[in-house]
Amino acid sequence: MPEAKILVVEDEKALAKILRYNLEKAGYQVITAHDGDAGLDFFLEEKPDIVILDIMLPGKDGFEVCRAIRQSSRTPILMLTAKKDELDRVLGLEIGADDYVTKPFSVREVLARVKAILRRAADKPAPLLARAGTLEVDLERYVTKVKGKPVSLSPKEFEFLKCLLQADGRALSRDELLEKVWGYDRSMEIDTNTVDQHIARLRGKLGAEAGRIVTVKNVGYRLRKD
Ligand code: CA
Predict the structure, then answer these.
(1) Contact (Cβ atoms closer than 8 angstroms) between residue 224 and residue 132
(2) What is the pLDDT of residues 63-111, one digit of tens each?
(3) Cα 119 to ligand 1 centre (Å)
(4) 1.10.760.10, 2.40.50.100, 1.10.10.10, 3.40.50.300: which CATH number matches 129-223?
(5) pTM score of the predicted model
(6) Looking at the domain covering 5-122, what would its CATH class be?
(7) What is the Å distance from ligand 1's center to 57 Cα?
């Protein structure tokens, strides 16, 4: 990935400087932040391709910054750890980091990790996105957003939304939805109220975009795309 943008969040200024110098020399664009809050602000503003994140930081620490980033983004994160207990938490993967290096590290090691992470990221296919207004659904990663903010849907609610989006404005009957989402067929005589209940919950979660799901009288539902 030429000219990848890297955000370095490291409060030891000398170390941040060494990283910046070497990463720039390797052809990357580098932004540095010296505390967690600035790191998170820069992340949101600059949309870097990768974040190198120290753990012990003034303000929000690296764990908090990592979790905050993971609420809305899958941007790769390389953690810098100095203590064994920090490393244990990173290895526990409870925070969603992609990789780590332990301090003291060699710059060459950091560069190799960055290169490997970016190569892995480049190999991933582009996300399969479906959009309607401010509703955005990543059909592969099961991520739903309204106005850029993630919405938490149950697997069934997500399948519903996916079916409606893929129907491309066409109305789907309750039977069709049951069949597509649950794999039921008509002979099983499943109560179609189940569909209505899920749609009601889904609408509730979609907030400002709830009106996209239109009830079609005596038929079922469709998703308004315009
Ligand atoms: Ca530190």
Answers:
(1) yes
(2) 999 989 988 788 999 999 888 777 777 765 567 788 889 999 999 999 9
(3) 27
(4) 1.10.10.10
(5) 0.57
(6) alpha beta
(7) 5
